[in-house]
Amino acid sequence: MTVANPHASLINPPAQCVGIQLAHEAYDILIGPGLLASESSWQDLPRAATAVIVSNETVAPLFLPQLEARLLRHYARVEKVILPDGEAFKTWDSLNHIFDCLLAKACDRKTVLFALGGGVIGDMTGFAAAVYMRGVPFVQVPTTLLAQVDSSVGGKTAINHPLGKNMIGAFYQPQRVIADLDSLDSLPQRELSAGLAEVIKYGPIADAAFLQWIEDNIEALLARDKAALAYAVKRCCEIKAWVVGQDEREQGLRAILNFGHTFGHAIETGMGYGAWLHGEAVGCGMVMASDLSVRLGLMPAEFLPRMRRLIERAGLPVVAPDLGVERYLDLMRVDKKAEAGEIRFVLIDGLGSAVMRAAPDAVVAEVIRSHRA
Amino acid sequence: MTVANPHASLINPPAQCVGIQLAHEAYDILIGPGLLASESSWQDLPRAATAVIVSNETVAPLFLPQLEARLLRHYARVEKVILPDGEAFKTWDSLNHIFDCLLAKACDRKTVLFALGGGVIGDMTGFAAAVYMRGVPFVQVPTTLLAQVDSSVGGKTAINHPLGKNMIGAFYQPQRVIADLDSLDSLPQRELSAGLAEVIKYGPIADAAFLQWIEDNIEALLARDKAALAYAVKRCCEIKAWVVGQDEREQGLRAILNFGHTFGHAIETGMGYGAWLHGEAVGCGMVMASDLSVRLGLMPAEFLPRMRRLIERAGLPVVAPDLGVERYLDLMRVDKKAEAGEIRFVLIDGLGSAVMRAAPDAVVAEVIRSHRA
């Protein structure tokens, strides 16, 4: 799925490029150390009078001055919107704060938005770009492992609603994704682990050899070895590009990227957004979904301890909060994959292969009971 | 631009069909009396367990029971969301009321939304459909003349922001538009006139003969003659289909549909949403834009009194509120067509032909002074 990159000659040797080719759009994901500092990463972006950097209170002090200086070489005006940090702020109020700024500064429909931060900033900035004046261009500058391997790729943008995660959003593609591995140096260990949950996910759903590679390299990843991180980010983006290229709007195949997310979203919503990091909930959710895969006879029994052990080694929780079985089921019924009230799960039916299917409530209840605190 | 309609045999003889053919989507606009009552109008819509009718407190008592009965033949469950009536409610709060209902009723991503009402209901329902779970199908059932000739066609959806009209939205196409001319029987005269503003618009921008036809038939239209209305709605939809088919996302040509809207939006925002009906503001805005076209030498002097007379005969205001010249200019600088702070106007440069261009502030100021109360 890696396509030829027309800008390849502009990119420093250490940077790698994964091309995303969709039905009507194409864009590049640049991966490597030193990209924020490298002029070549910022060439050939959409021309406009104004760029707007959207970031949060944690990330802005670390990287915003550097990005602003970079963008001032290409845009006459660079505005900034700094939001509070955390999933609890992925709301309409934060989104409206972006709109207020864009309108107060008379930003026109050519204005380019830059999302500088993790998945929350990326999702919100992307959604703001999708609907401000019915669509302006945007660029993802993901600074967390989770955003680099997952949320900045594929065009899913959204905000949360009190009744469900990511319920309001759009499919809207960035002009480019610039994943500077140096930004991971300052990432708290808990956030790094949360990102590893999405890295691990790509193994069981699509690539058994990659699962083995992660097991062999989990310590290097936890120690932020740049070569290991570069390989992991690139491989995840390649797999995601392959999946999204076949099913841009999640009519079918793309749903496999939600392995662990049905249980995970229930944990996040049930605990209150922000109590668990998204990656933590997905990690624990993958343990539960692995168990469900085994209970439904799709995988041999040893798959569950193998997944649980890897998720635990990554520093992620493997015991679910006790929300009560009924509350779990209620929360999962409003999942976007549900149809006519029937919950549908992404399950593993062979290493490197996933399917989506419904499961009897009684079996799901057993899974919930088996893994609760 | 009228394309062959695959469902032609299903439609009652009096109904007409205008096909909209876009790059990646196509849909039909059905126009005629008795469409709400005719089973054939409702065939072959997207299958789903649930339909949701979004309407307002004025329109719902008139047509909702009939539409609900019709939809219950095709959907197991029909939910209703009734919003307050008026442009002042085209807000995030109203939109969120729709989302609350959809989530509380566990509506999945196959749910079909039906917009039953005028332009405000159509814009909001369309935007809700565009972003609920990143997109669900919707059908426009416009019950005002303005919505039938303009706002239900072309896929523009939006809500207002306190700092600008239609600033937050999406391009999102309906599955079908069902324009029942019988619904215009109960329309207040002021709303009928507001709709005529958008009808008149299509003459100067695209069809000199249609402008003449409107001048010859304005009394019949005001008297709600069904044959005259059918012709006017069909001709407007044909012109809009032709324009939108060439420029779905308003990169260029499509902007001509905004003739009168730059001044008009300033009036609407400046007076407070709802004080002037959208069509009233557009009517007065067309007088001002006609004057600007004359002052810039694009049209002969007699064009202005001709347009003013027709707009006046349609029952529309031709004198602008005195917001002050600077306030007008400020409001117009945040117009979506503005670029880098330069206001761009749709101007007539020959009967049936429009261009978009900037104008010197001094000339715009003269226009504002000439038409104020």
| Count of extended strands of chain A | 11
Distance between the termini of chain A: 42 Å
- What is the class of the largest domain in chain A in the CATH system? Mainly Alpha
Here the CATH topology of the largest domain in chain A equals: Dehydroquinate synthase-like, alpha domain
Of all chain pairs, the largest interface belongs to: A-B, 39 and 39 residues
| Rg of chain A computed from alpha carbons, rounded to a whole number of angstroms | 20 Å
Average pLDDT, all residues of chain A? 92
- Backbone shape of chain A: globular
Structural class of chain A: alpha/beta
Spatial order of strands in the largest sheet of chain A = 1-2-9-6-5-3-4
Q: What's the helix-strand series of chain A?
A: EEEHEHEHEHEEEHHHHHHHEEH
From the coordinates shown, what is the CATH architecture of the largest domain in chain A? Up-down Bundle
Key descriptive features of the protein:
373 residues; Rossmann fold; homodimer; Dehydroquinate synthase-like, alpha domain; 2 domains; alpha/beta; 43% helix; disordered N terminus; two-stranded antiparallel ribbon
Nutshell version of this structure?
Chain A is built from twelve helices and eleven strands. By secondary structure, chain A is an alpha/beta fold.
Structure description:
2 copies of one chain form a homodimer. Chain A has 373 residues and is α/β, with parallel strands linked by helices. The first copy, chain A, has 2 domains: 16-186, Rossmann fold (3-Layer(aba) Sandwich); 195-371, Dehydroquinate synthase-like, alpha domain, CATH 1.20.1090. Chain A contains 12 helices and 11 strands. Chain A has helices at 60-71, 92-104, 119-131, 145-151, 189-206, 208-222, 226-246, 261-271, 278-295, 303-313, 325-333, 361-371; strands at residues 16-21, 26-32, 50-56, 77-83, 112-117, 138-142, 156-161, 164-171, 176-180, 344-348, 354-358. Chain A has a 7-stranded mixed sheet, with helices on both faces. In chain A, helix 3 links the parallel strand 5 and strand 6. The relative contact order of chain A is 0.11. The model of chain A is unreliable at 1-13 (pLDDT under 50). The A-B interface holds A 23-24, 49, 92, 96, 99-100, 103-104, 106, 108-110, 127, 130-135, 156, 158, 161, 163-164, 167-171, 249-250, 333-334, 336, 338-341 and B 23-24, 49, 92, 96, 99-100, 103-104, 106, 108-110, 127, 130-135, 156, 158, 161, 163-164, 167-171, 249-250, 333-334, 336, 338-341.
